[in-house]
Automatic annotation (TrEMBL):
This is ECF RNA polymerase sigma factor SigJ. NCBIfam families: PRK09636.1, sigma70-ECF. Residues 106-158 form the RNA polymerase sigma factor 70 region 4 type domain. SUPFAM superfamilies: NTF2-like, Sigma2 domain of RNA polymerase sigma factors, Sigma3 and sigma4 domains of RNA polymerase sigma factors. Residues 9-72 form the RNA polymerase sigma-70 region domain. One of its GO terms (biological process) is DNA-templated transcription initiation. GO terms for molecular function: DNA binding; sigma factor activity. It comes from the Bacteria. Signal peptide: none annotated. Interacts transiently with the RNA polymerase catalytic core formed by RpoA, RpoB, RpoC and RpoZ (2 alpha, 1 beta, 1 beta' and 1 omega subunit) to form the RNA polymerase holoenzyme that can initiate transcription.
C-alpha cells in the first residue's frame, strides 16, 4: 500500500514542483511545498480520495498561495528590482533536447508579480496547466464564474502574454552569441542594433551584491552599461588561465550566461527577444539565488 501511495505521488512530483514554482517564483520554496504536500498525502485517508492528482494539485496550490501572501509583504521591502529564483533544466536532459519554454521565463514570472495571489493561481492553472474553471473553483474554493473572471483580469494585466517562443532554440543561442560578441567588440552601434529602442535591463542584487537599484531603460543606456561593466569580464574570460569563466546554462526555459569568478557564480544573464531584437535583459546578482548555479 505504501509503495503504491508513494508511486502515485512521485508520478505527480514534477508537475507539482512546476506549479509551486510558477506561483511562488522560488525553486527552493517550491521544493519545500512539494515535500509538505507529500507528507499530507501520506497522512491522508486514501480511501476517500477519488482523484489523487487533483487532490495533490489542490494541496500544493493552497500551500503555494499561503507562501505567496507572506512573500508579497517581504518583496515590498526588497532592495532594488526583484527577480525569481532560477529554475534550472534537468541536468539529465541532453542539451540538444532542451526547448524554449515561455511558461517559466523570467519575463512571464516578472509579469505575474503584478497579479493578486488568486489571479495568479487562476491564470497558471487554466492557461498553463489547462485546468477547467470548474476544477479551479474546487481548488480555490470559489465559483467557476469567479475563477474565470480572475483569469481574465490576469490576462488583461499582463497584456495577453504570448506563451509561444518567438525564436527557435538555435536562433536564441545565436542571439546570445551575437550579443556577447558585440559587447566584446567594444563599439556601441553593433550592440544597440541588437536591442529594442525601449529595451529594459533588470538587475537583482537584493542588497547583497552590486546591482542597479532601478530598471535601466533604452538601448543606448543599456549598451553603455554593458560596455563599461560586462565587457571587462568577457575579455578576462579569454585569458589562458582565466579567473573569470563564462558558461552557457539553460534556466527558466532558455539559455543564459553564467559568469563565475574564482569558481563562484556572480551573475546570471538571460534575454527576452521580441521581433528579432532583445526586449528585456534580466541579471541575477543576489548570491542567495545564484547558489543554485554552483558547480561543486
Amino acid at each position: 500500500m505504501t509503495a503504491a501511495v508513494l508511486a502515485t505521488f512521485e508520478a505527480a512530483r514534477a508537475q507539482l514542483i512546476g506549479l509551486a514554482y510558477r506561483i511562488t517564483g522560488s525553486r527552493t520554496e517550491a521544493e519545500d511545498i512539494v515535500q509538505e504536500t507529500c507528507l499530507k498525502w501520506l497522512a491522508a485517508d486514501q480511501a476517500v480520495i477519488q482523484v489523487p492528482r487533483a487532490w495533490l494539485m489542490k494541496v500544493a496550490t493552497r500551500l503555494s498561495l499561503d507562501y505567496l501572501k507572506s512573500a508579497r509583504v517581504q518583496r515590498m521591502s526588497y532592495i532594488g528590482p526583484w527577480l525569481p529564483e532560477p529554475f534550472l533544466a534537468n541536468e539529465n536532459t541532453p542539451e540538444e533536447e532542451l526547448e524554449l519554454d515561455e511558461s517559466i521565463s523570467m519575463a512571464l514570472l516578472v509579469l505575474l508579480e503584478q497579479l493578486s495571489p488568486a489571479e495568479r493561481a487562476s491564470f497558471i492553472l487554466h492557461d498553463l496547466f489547462q485546468y477547467r474553471f470548474e476544477e479551479i473553483a474546487d481548488i480555490l474554493d470559489r465559483s467557476a464564474s469567479a475563477c474565470r473572471k480572475l483569469a481574465s483580469r490576469a490576462r488583461a494585466k499582463i497584456g495577453n502574454q504570448d506563451l509561444q517562443p518567438e525564436l527557435t532554440r538555435d536562433a536564441h543561442l545565436q542571439m546570445l552569441n551575437a550579443f556577447t560578441q558585440a559587447v566584446k567588440q567594444g563599439e556601441t552601434a553593433p550592440l544597440v542594433s541588437l536591442l529594442q529602442d525601449e529595451a529594459t535591463f533588470v538587475s537583482d542584487g537584493g542588497g547583497k551584491a552590486l546591482a542597479a537599484r532601478k530598471i535601466v531603460r533604452g538601448s543606448a543606456l543599456i549598451s553603455r552599461f554593458f560596455l563599461k561593466t560586462v565587457r571587462p569580464a568577457l575579455l578576462a574570460a579569454e585569458d589562458p588561465d582565466p579567473e573569470i569563466v563564462i558558461k552557457i546554462t539553460w534556466f527558466n526555459g532558455a539559455p543564459g550566461l553564467i559568469i563565475y569568478h574564482a569558481g563562484q557564480p556572480v551573475s546570471a544573464l538571460q534575454f527576452q527577444v521580441t521581433h528579432n531584437k532583445i526586449q528585456h535583459i534580466y541579471v541575477l546578482r543576489n548570491p542567495d539565488k545564484l547558489r543554485l548555479f554552483h558547480t561543486s
